[in-house]
Each structure stands twice: as structure tokens, then as C-alpha cells.
Automatic annotation (TrEMBL), chain A:
<dbReference type="InterPro" id="IPR020904">
    <property type="entry name" value="Sc_DH/Rdtase_CS"/>
</dbReference>
<keyword id="KW-0560">Oxidoreductase</keyword>
<dbReference type="InterPro" id="IPR036291">
    <property type="entry name" value="NAD(P)-bd_dom_sf"/>
</dbReference>
<dbReference type="Pfam" id="PF00106">
    <property type="entry name" value="adh_short"/>
</dbReference>
<comment type="similarity">
    <text>Belongs to the short-chain dehydrogenases/reductases (SDR) family.</text>
</comment>
<dbReference type="GO" id="GO:0016491">
    <property type="term" value="F:oxidoreductase activity"/>
</dbReference>
<dbReference type="InterPro" id="IPR002347">
    <property type="entry name" value="SDR_fam"/>
</dbReference>
<protein>
    <submittedName>
        <fullName>Decaprenylphospho-beta-D-erythro-pentofuranosid-2-ulose 2-reductase</fullName>
        <ecNumber>1.1.1.333</ecNumber>
    </submittedName>
</protein>
UniProtKB/TrEMBL annotation, chain B:
<dbReference type="Pfam" id="PF01565">
    <property type="entry name" value="FAD_binding_4"/>
</dbReference>
<dbReference type="InterPro" id="IPR007173">
    <property type="entry name" value="ALO_C"/>
</dbReference>
<dbReference type="InterPro" id="IPR006094">
    <property type="entry name" value="Oxid_FAD_bind_N"/>
</dbReference>
<dbReference type="GO" id="GO:0016020">
    <property type="term" value="C:membrane"/>
</dbReference>
<dbReference type="InterPro" id="IPR036318">
    <property type="entry name" value="FAD-bd_PCMH-like_sf"/>
</dbReference>
<dbReference type="GO" id="GO:0071949">
    <property type="term" value="F:FAD binding"/>
</dbReference>
<feature type="domain" description="FAD-binding PCMH-type">
    <location>
        <begin position="28"/>
        <end position="196"/>
    </location>
</feature>
<dbReference type="InterPro" id="IPR016166">
    <property type="entry name" value="FAD-bd_PCMH"/>
</dbReference>
<dbReference type="InterPro" id="IPR016171">
    <property type="entry name" value="Vanillyl_alc_oxidase_C-sub2"/>
</dbReference>
Length: 251, 465
């Protein structure tokens, strides 16, 4: 069960090698979390992530999960919930893609959309139903500021996150009153291996900062969390910039 | 029911279960459960039988601060439908009543007959079942012990659907008193009462300038009073750390009432007053350091340096907060946590350290209460033990509060003390065994009595009780 501050005792990470997810897991393990499930494609990286959390004292198990294979979600994720309550699900998988290449190769663009959006819809619904029958739990969805308004420089990734964000908001409304709390997290540019080599955007942040914001959001039972918080203001201004101006902005 | 009725809406019949969001009085960590409201012992047995694989837990008036009477995804038995006072023996001073009867109702019924409940906590709106399940204590613990000390017998509905009459001195009694509802559903109880001549209290008030002054005064004179409690200003720092107001007294005898006073004509009248309810929406952070600091300053200054024999109503002396229905709302949406611990006599240094840490950190708590416990009680998970107990409440949205309270737990456990489960919403499970040495006995009894784990709550899941 979560405690009075929303800190979970058991955590399921979808996208078990995500740096943001692992920073969050480390933070939560330092508090209350004792059981962690890392779901992802079986790989040495996943095992390494698991042993890193084990070193912190958590009981960690890994489970095969592929965002691109929605047909397996019901079975693979469902069985986790039969072993005990999951207090928090962190939906953290996603790919950035390569905008220039993806524009040339529609198939690889579609894979970005399938991973970030379609996979999340399927996995999110499977987990949401399980949480609902538990009568409690938090579903934390890692969205992105990129989904707030599509930009020329990464609209394929951005549009997939926009879809995910809208899905998570709607799911949160659907689950309101069921004891399940859905929280959408919108980080700005996060310094991770996913963004390595990219030119850093203003107000860049770190996985640790996102993890801290998630913990605060759980305590406050927030529905939307921006990281850093000032992006809420920045984005609400940018949202209203006329398109002819917006497309010329150096973003 | 009084205006301050439970937050849960009543349903028409026991079978009409509805999914509702349930939280404790602190309003943190709500979860959803099916609410069943049995009106007879038979309906209660049916509810237990049909509660499903996520089990069920009895709930009274929802005054436990944490998650003791919640059961996510399962059933919650709202026991307030079993609300009959069955028999009063006005000569011997005992009452037989359903578990859903509130202490408020008992006072209404018993006071005119010259009897009072043996133990009352800071609210009258707890049920008899809840009083046993949490093994509540009051300002008279140093004299009278906890509530279950005055229970002569109770009927307990266990997981197999049978009803047992449980009497003191048996393992089942000791597991149930303070057992947080996890041994079964208490259906009714026989309680021994306290005789009184009037419904007024004779109260002595004095101020203590700091924590050491307070502890010295309590140690020297507590035995002279049936009821004793001290309010501490936990925001006061430096030399004023621990400054406090002591309020102590006893039931006023008839000859203490002034001649020709109105109270003389009806010395046993019970008339608690009521103020308007707290509004349903209060912004978070209203009770910050500034507001609570100001309140504490005024509260301390307004208390008389020393006053004896003041006559107060029962509601004023015991239950000041009951006058404001839904007062828990003033903490806003995030709610609040209550932290109550006890450390034994001889561990005063631990108490001082905890008070110093709270005061240095500036926790905005305006309800901090210190009292001395007497003899421990037989319940395996009963909270009281001989020593000092401090209770405080803190807004849950205070950053870093979780880690801070974990550190206080360490201090308390290192001093062989414990925290109170009826108020808990955040204890780490691994701390429990150190705080409650009879935990293994409790678990073993439950494993035998309820192998399928029919009785379950969010508290029991969180702490693996």
C-alpha cells in the first residue's frame, strides 16, 4: 500500500531501462518501495538495472515486455498483478527516433508512433484495469513537453507524445473516483542517453530532478507535473504563439 | 445521528453495496471499497461470508486517522447500522450495546442515570467496536487504563461466520483489544461504567514554562487527578521549548456546584454545543508555521497561570474539537498525519530529543498533547505502556515530512517505544516488530483463526500485520 505521502511499497516499471524510471525507482526504494518489477525486453541492460536496485535493498524481478507487441501485454503484465498489489505503475518506455531519417522512412516513423502511443495505450489499459480492481494505485505516465505543441524539429516524436498525453489525461478522468490516480509527467529536455549528442534545449533537466518531481506529485496527488515547474508557464505562453511566428522560433 | 455523522453515505440494505472512496480522518491515501452496511448480526455474518477475495474490514465512525478502516478493492462493513443500546444495569453500572453505538450516544443515555463511559478519547464520535479495536485511551489512562480494560465481554464474528463470546484473559480477547479489527467483527460488548454525580468537570489549569518544568509538574502531581493532559507549544524554541498548558480534573461532585446555580436543578444534563462545520473546501497550506505559531502564542497566553476548581462541561473538557464538525477539513486536500508515540519512564531523554527535533524543524502542529500513561494493557497490539506519550498532527503536504517522521520512529524504537496504529498512516513495516513485541503471537493467532485472510485492511497490507 502507498503511505500517507503517496509513496508506494511496490512499483512496476514499464520500460525498465529508462534512466528517468531508474532514477525514480532509486528514489522510491530509498523511501518505502521494497518490491520492484522491471518490465522490458530481456537484455543485459535490464538485468544490470535490476541488480543496481537490488544493491539498494529492493526485491527486484524482471519481466519480458515489448511495447511493439500489444498482443502479449494482457498476459505478460496481467500475471504481475496476480502476485500481489502494485501500488504504482510507471509507464516510462518510449523512443526518440531520428527525425530526419524517420521523415524519409515512414516505416521507422510508424515504429516510433507504435512504441510511444499504441504500445502505451495497450499496456496502460491493462494496468489501469488491474489497478482498478485493486481499488488503489497510481499510474504515472511519462509524457513530454514535446507533446504540448508539435515543433518542426521533432514532430514525429512530439505527435506520439501528444497522443500519449491525451490518452493519459482521458484515462485519468475515466478512473476518477475509482481509487486509481493517474499522473501525467511532462519533462522538458532531459539529459539522458536518449538525448546524448543532441543540442541541449533551454531549461534542460536531469533524471534525478524528474524523479524528485514525481515524488512530490505523488504526495500532492497531482494530475499534471511539469519538470522543471516553470515549463508550465513557458508552455502555456508558447501554446498561444501564432503559427507563423512559432515555426520561426529557434526551438 | 448528530450533524457530525460519518462521511460515508448510508445505504438502504446490507446487500446494496456501493463502491465508495474511503479514507481515514487524516484524509490521506484514499482507496475505493464496496461499502456494506449490516443492520443485524445476521446481515453482518452474510456480509463477511460474501466479502470476496479481497476481504473485508469493519468500520465505525471513521475517526482512525490513517488507513485502519479502509480496504482497497474489497469490502468495508459500516457498523453504524448496529446501533442499539441493549441493556443498562443502572445499579451495577454496566451496559450491553451493539458495536456501532457511539460514545456520544452512550453519554446521552447514561449520564442522566449517573454513569459515564469509563474511557473517552478526544472525540465522542467513536463507536464501541472501534474503541475496542483500537484499544483507545483517554486522559485517565494513568488511573483507569485503556478502554478494553473495562470490557467484560464481547461478541465477535470470526472469519468462519460464527459468533464467539470473548471474555478477558483469553488469547482471543487480547488479540482483539487493539487488534485493529483483524480478528473479526465485534458485534456487541458489555462495558463497565464510571459513576458520576454531575455532568460537569472540576478542572485545574496551570502553565509550564518549558518541557522540564512540565515533566516535573506532571510527575509530581499527576496521581492526584483522574484526568490529566498537557497541551504543548511545539513551535516554541530556545528556553521556551516545550512550554505548555496543563489541564487536569475530575468529575465534579454534586456539592461542588454552587448553591442556586442552574446546574443544581439538572446536575446530570448533557448538552454539548456545536459550532458551524468547517467548509468543504479549504486551500492547502492554511495551517502553516505563521498561522499555527500565532495560534499557539495566543493559546498559551490566554491560559491562566494557575486556576483551580473551574467547572467545565464534559464536551469542553474532553472533546473541544467535536464542537466543529469536519474540523479535519481545515488541513485542505492533502490532509494531515497524526503522530503519536510512547516512550517508557526512564527514557525521558528520548522524549526531549524528539520534542527538540520537532521544535527545531518548526513542524506546524497546533494540537500537540503530552500525557503520562499508567500500567500497560493486555492487548497484544495495544498501544499504551507505562511512559510518556506525545501526539501531534502535521499537514501532510509538508515537504520532507515522511523522511523526518521515519527518523523520529528510529528514536522512538531505539528507546523501546512505539507508535499508535490507530493514528498511523506511514510507518515502515520493518519497524513494527521492534515496537510491538507480541506481533508474532498476533500473526500466529490470525493465521489459525482466519487462514484465508478474510479480515484485511489497507493498514494490514501496508504493515503486513
Amino acid at each position: 500500500m502507498k503511505d500517507a505521502f503517496g509513496t508506494p511499497q511496490s512499483l512496476l516499471v514499464l520500460g525498465g531501462t529508462s534512466e528517468i524510471a531508474l532514477a525514480t525507482a532509486r528514489r522510491l526504494v530509498a523511501r518505502r518501495t521494497r518490491t520492484v518489477w522491471l518490465a522490458g525486453r530481456p537484455s543485459p541492460a535490464l538485468e544490470k538495472a535490476a541488480s543496481g536496485l537490488r544493491d539498494l535493498g529492493a526485491d527486484v524481478r524482471t519481466v519480458a515486455f515489448d511495447a511493439l507487441d500489444p498482443e502479449s501485454h494482457e498476459e505478460n503484465l496481467g500475471k504481475i498483478f496476480t502476485e500481489g498489489d502494485i501500488d504504482m505503475v510507471l509507464l516510462a518506455f518510449g523512443v526518440l527516433g531520428d527525425q530526419a531519417r524517420d521523415e524519409d522512412e515512414p516505416l521507422s516513423a510508424a515504429r516510433v508512433a507504435q512504441t510511444n502511443y499504441t504500445g502505451a495505450v495497450s499496456a496502460g489499459l491493462v494496468c489501469a484495469r488491474a489497478l482498478q480492481s485493486q481499488g488503489h494505485g497510481s499510474l504515472v505516465v511519462l509524457s513530454s513537453v514535446a507533446g504540448e505543441r508539435a515543433r518542426r524539429s521533432n514532430f514525429i516524436y512530439g505527435s506520439s507524445k501528444a497522443g500519449l498525453d491525451a490518452f493519459a489525461q482521458g484515462l485519468g478522468d475515466a478512473l476518477y473516483g475509482t481509487g486509481v490516480h493517474v499522473m501525467v509527467v511532462r519533462p522538458g529536455f532531459v539529459r539522458t542517453k536518449m538525448t546524448a549528442g543532441l543540442e541541449e534545449a533551454p531549461m534542460a533537466t536531469t533524471p534525478e530532478a524528474v524523479a524528485e518531481a514525481i515524488e512530490t506529485g505523488l504526495r500532492r496527488r497531482s494530475e499534471t507535473v511539469w519538470v522543471p515547474g516553470v515549463l508550465r508557464v513557458v508552455m502555456s505562453a508558447l501554446r498561444h504563439v501564432p503559427r507563423p511566428v512559432f515555426r520561426r522560433l529557434p526551438l | 445521528m448528530p450533524a457530525d455523522s460519518p462521511a460515508l453515505p448510508p445505504s438502504e440494505a446490507a446487500s446494496a453495496a456501493e463502491a465508495v472512496s474511503v479514507s481515514g480522518w487524516g484524509r490521506t491515501a484514499p482507496t475505493t471499497a464496496r461499502l456494506v452496511r449490516p443492520r443485524t448480526p445476521e446481515e453482518a455474518a452474510a456480509a463477511v461470508r460474501d466479502c470476496g477475495e479481497r476481504g473485508g474490514i469493519a468500520r465505525g465512525l471513521g475517526r482512525a486517522y490513517g488507513d485502519a478502516a479502509q480496504n482497497a478493492g474489497g469490502a468495508v462493513f459500516d457498523m453504524t447500522g448496529l446501533d442499539r443500546v441493549r441493556a443498562i444495569d443502572a445499579d451495577a453500572g454496566t451496559v450491553v450495546c451493539d458495536s456501532g453505538v457511539s460514545l456520544h450516544r452512550l453519554m446521552e443515555v447514561l449520564l442522566p442515570l449517573g454513569w459515564f463511559v469509563p474511557v473517552t478519547p478526544g472525540t465522542r464520535y467513536v463507536t464501541v467496536g472501534g474503541a475496542i479495536g483500537a484499544d483507545i485511551h483517554g486522559k485517565n489512562h494513568h488511573v483507569s487504563g485503556s478502554f478494553s480494560r473495562h470490557v467484560l465481554a464481547m461478541d465477535l464474528l470470526t472469519a468462519d461466520g460464527t459468533v464467539h463470546t470473548v471474555t478477558p484473559g483469553t488469547p482471543l480477547f487480547d488479540a482483539t483489544a487493539g487488534g485493529m479489527g483483524l480478528t473479526g467483527v465485534i458485534l456487541s460488548a458489555t462495558v463497565r461504567l464510571q459513576p458520576v454525580e454531575t455532568s460537569l468537570m472540576s478542572v485545574d489549569t496551570e502553565r509550564a514554562t518549558d518541557l522540564d518544568d512540565l515533566m516535573a509538574r506532571l510527575t509530581a502531581t499527576d496521581h492526584r487527578y483522574r484526568y490529566s493532559v498537557a497541551w504543548i507549544d511545539l513551535l516554541a524554541r530556545g528556553t521556551a521549548m516545550g512550554r505548555s498548558v496543563l489541564t487536569r480534573g475530575d468529575h465534579a461532585p454534586l456539592d461542588a456546584l454552587p448553591a442556586r446555580a442552574r446546574a443544581r436543578r439538572a446536575p446530570l444534563a448533557f448538552r454539548p454545543g456545536q459550532l458551524p462545520a468547517a467548509p468543504s473546501f479549504v486551500p492547502d497550506g492554511l495551517l502553516g508555521k505563521a498561522t499555527v505559531g500565532l495560534f499557539n502564542e495566543l493559546w498559551y497566553r490566554k491560559a491562566p497561570r494557575c486556576r483551580t476548581g473551574e467547572l467545565q462541561k464534559i464536551s469542553t473538557f474532553f472533546h473541544p474539537l467535536d464542537g466543529v464538525p469536519h474540523w479535519n477539513r481545515v488541513y485542505g486536500r492533502s490532509g494531515f498525519v497524526q503522530y503519536q508515540f510512547v516512550v517508557g519512564y526512564g527514557k525521558e531523554e528520548a522524549l526531549r530529543r524528539v520534542v527538540r527535533r520537532i521544535s527545531e524543524r518548526g513542524c506546524p502542529s497546533f494540537l500537540a498533547v503530552l500525557k503520562r500513561f499508567g500500567e500497560g494493557d493486555p492487548g497484544w497490539l495495544s498501544f499504551p505502556m507505562p511512559g510518556w506519550t506525545l501526539a501531534l498532527d502535521i499537514p501532510a503536504n509538508l515537504p520532507g515530512l515522511g523522511a523526518f517522521l521515519d527518523e523520529l520512529d528510529e528514536e522512538v524504537a531505539a528507546a523501546d517505544g512505539r507508535v499508535y496504529l490507530a493514528k498511523d498512516s506511514r510507518l515502515r513495516p520493518e519497524m513494527l516488530a521492534a515496537m510491538y513485541p507480541r506481533l508474532d503471537d498476533f500473526r500466529a493467532l490470525r493465521a489459525g483463526l482466519d487462514p484465508r485472510g478474510v479480515f484485511r485492511s489497507d493498514l494490514s497490507r501496508r504493515l503486513a500485520l
